[in-house]
Task: structure prediction
Amino acid sequence: MVNVKTLVLIISIAILAGYIAIRFWPGDERAIRKQLALIEEAGSKGAAEQPIEALFKAKQIADLFADPCLLTVEAVRYAGSYPRKQIQDRIVMVRAFYAQARVSLHDISIEIAETNTAVVHGTIRLRGEVKGEAIADVHELRAEMKKIDGNWLFTSVAIVEVLER
Amino acid sequence: METGWLRRFLLPDLNGRFVLRLLLVAVIAVVVCTQVLVPLRIEGKSMEPTYDDGGFNLCWRGRYLFSEPERGDVVVIRFTGRRVMLLKRIIGLAGDTVEFRNGALFVNNIWVKEPYVRSPSDWNLAPRKVEPGKVYVVGDNRTVHMDRHHFGQVEQERIMGGVLW
Result:
């Protein structure tokens, strides 16, 4: 008969193995999460960031977008298709506005279709500093991604209007 | 001095009863913290002075199980999930017309006294009718410029509950 200590050990190992399998198993969802993590990393900005680093980070983010990509801002009823270069320029501008910034994504849900497309829902949070003043912003995002040449790229990004004035 | 109970408490025997108790406590803690009283760490100044930046509270999810939200209630509003949520006060219900005139709130063209707003405000917002199934929410800190304050009508189904205190 298996004693309690052995049982606890077996259950613990099973839970750990399950967690490792889910966390590190390669797949489309993991590839998409990696792209999202890059947005967090490259979107964030330290106080001592150099201009060349800022350009590199903006390019890293822009490379995640398909060329062109549909951008929608529901609050101002705006939708437009932007080439990657224009997205990169806009990212440079927005990041330059902040002395320092931290981007984080939360509550991410990913639905992958069979046709190499995925729908991503999540909440993006930006905490930054502008002229010594702390600024915080949060938005709900809905994005569509497509696997192009083995890379998951954003084909459409919409900022969902949660609070409508 | 009798220290047997302390020793048993700190170094319990790893028997079946203990494992069962531990599992039960863990399950209850998870259920309570995710479904009943969700811990909140308040970040931001939009609800000052009622709720300060860095404060702690609990979201009481049963608040609207048997009642409808009312004007003046402080509610927790979700985005895509529960990691990042907004804390706001309801100022208008479905069918109400809300308006700000030089910082003063008018609901259905009647001035509403707001004792929780302590700082002067110069907000001006043209009258707008709250759509069915929605409530109009705003923060208590109206010293923030209107453009940088998250407020507006939101779907009632996004209300996660009310704050406990």
